[in-house]
Amino acid sequence: MILGRNDQRCSDTMFLEFLVWFLLLGLRSVASQQEDVDFTYNGFRGVNMSLDGLAQITNNGLLMLVNTTNQQVGHAFYPHPLHFRNSSTGNAFSFSTTFVFAIWKLIRFGGPGMAFVIAPSRKFPGALPGNYLGLFNMTTIGKPSDHVIAIEIDTLRNKEFNDIDGSHIGIDINNLKSVQSATASYFSNEQNRRVNISLIDGQPLQLWVEYNGDEKQLNVTLAPINVPKPTIPLLSLKIDLSLFIVDPMFVGFSSTTYVMPVYHFVLGWSFKMNGEARQLNLSQLPELPHLKTHKTRPRLFIILVSVIGASLALISVFIITQFIVKRKKKFAEVLEDWELNYGPHRFKYKDLYIATKGFKDKELLGTGGFGSVYRGVLPTSKTEVAVKRVSHNSRQGEREFIAEIISIGRLRHRNIVPLLGYCRRKEELFLVYDFMPNGSLDKILFDHTKTESMLSWCQRFRIIKSVASALLYLHEEWERVVVHRDVKSSNVLLDKELNGRLGDFGLARLYDHGTNPQTTHVVGTIGYLAPELCGTGQANPSVDVFAFGAFLLEVACGRRPIEPRASEECMVLVDWVILCWSKGTILETGDPKLGFDYDVQEMELVLKLGLLCSHPIPTVRPQMRQVMRYLEREISLPELTPLGLRTAIDDTSFWPSKGFSDVSIWCPYPSSTKTRSSSVVESIVSGGR
Ligand SMILES: *[C@@H]1O[C@H](CO)[C@@H](O)[C@H](O)[C@H]1NC(C)=O
Ligand SMILES: *[C@@H]1O[C@H](CO)[C@@H](O)[C@H](O)[C@H]1NC(C)=O
Ligand SMILES: *[C@@H]1O[C@H](CO)[C@@H](O)[C@H](O)[C@H]1NC(C)=O
To answer: N or C, which end of the chain is more exposed by having fewer CB within 10 Å?
Structure first.
């Protein structure tokens, strides 16, 4: 059965061979017959492959792992399980495989590549497209129980996985951080040197993966198809695969798309267990469709120019038109009629794409729970902007979502980072803000590499006042009451003159409409979340005041509201400040980086005001108008004692759920389930959202 499945060339002689073989070895068990699985597909027409996702076999026999649909995966596996392990010795068998593949990307930073995979299953439930290559997700990656061995053909540099560059081959074991990797290249016997290969220009390339079970040696070799197999492999790794495999395993390919058009093809594939895979017959491989827009081969090019210059001109016109058509498609956006009314706020995706150089890693300013922020320069006006890219899958409330953005776009205050506009495209939303050259306050405040503060007390006090006035504007001075809901130092940005400006506007609020899987229901950031939110989830301005209190303490003390690594006493900033206050040493909580270089009265005011704003009972918290007056020293703080605060905090009857009393109450969870709370705690430990 095994040989019969071999390929389309099941001729009479082969049938005879099969008969003889069967008679000779007829008594072997089914399992041991499978040891010598051997197949060669010179093209996939009529071949039984197990396909899922975007993977399909084209009419002319190409295995097309993915087409140009964004953010999808494609898997193509040999349908039968293979025994990779000698059941008596437990060792992994030797195997050898080779395949010809072609990757075509419209632009360099298109998609993340593909992989040859050996895995215990043909299905990868929950696996993500894009960087995860359709093999893992955040939870499954890196687990020894994955038993996934992959040879990645990676066309994107992913810093998360320590990728060496944007064009490499890597050996991956249960992870996308390769055990070994190398820039895509081959050793040219002729030139006696390594020659780099482009993985993405649609040229067919051949890859060999060979494992010697006795020597525990895994070799991976790459070459263009017009070059004989190089004598020196690209990757050569001593590794005992028996440590990673289970029995049985499946072999095949996994591939994914990201945001730009990309095609991944396998033209032919040969595999043999316990022996050398048969050579592919290159002349029989199916033809690739004409996708090439990248390169014309130079010699051909010269001939064309000299012989038929005129037709070349015609061809280029044709190519250009095609390119323009493709480009149009590439930059396709989601635009509905009613949105046109909002005119100026709507950016063209193309402009944002050009502005951020295609959302290049180099332009990445930061990543947070809501998405990544890129620096960019708008092509027409040459203004510097920060582009926030968030995924949103909201079908419901779409209109409200956009209306909200538009309304936020109308906020104007000198201490608020202006939202210049937005763009919507498939499942992505882009928010365009003014660029703030000095980044966010937390970066400067919590920069542990410096022993002296970059911000003097005077500057800090000014920043505090500017954030207070921004909140006052939102709460009382604008046409509607706006609750920011995510006040914290990382959302305070510093402009050229180090003025503080409140940013990331209303995103928390927006996410009530659209839902972000990572932050559903977690509106705001732990350590800044007012306790009453646990119960009602209703946001009113006093929620911002609470967070502003936490922010005041952060700025004065130079540390985060919750420091999981600190001693128990100091872990929760508020508790610690109250404790020091009751001992009469409140000033000791001031940021050590300031030395003694601060105004004692102002410092004391900020610390106590921080505590007052963070009062657990909403009605005790001052309103922003009052806060401004305290800061301007127009009025003095109300009577407040450390003991009174402590009692209020300890009054657990206030808490919506008694269950919270055994958790630090300054760290309320948005839902009372254990699982969520642990994930939230993890997110604090890993440095916030
Ligand atoms: C890609 O393939 C999928 C599944 O075969 C199909 O539904 C989709 O329309 C194709 N997309 C393009 C752009 O060809
Ligand atoms: C990852 O996939 C597993 C298995 O399907 C699933 O249980 C888990 O929820 C997924 N995790 C994420 C973060 O998507
Ligand atoms: C091949 O690529 C590597 C990595 O990008 C680069 O360092 C090297 O100089 C390239 N070699 C040649 C011959 O172009």
So the answer is: N
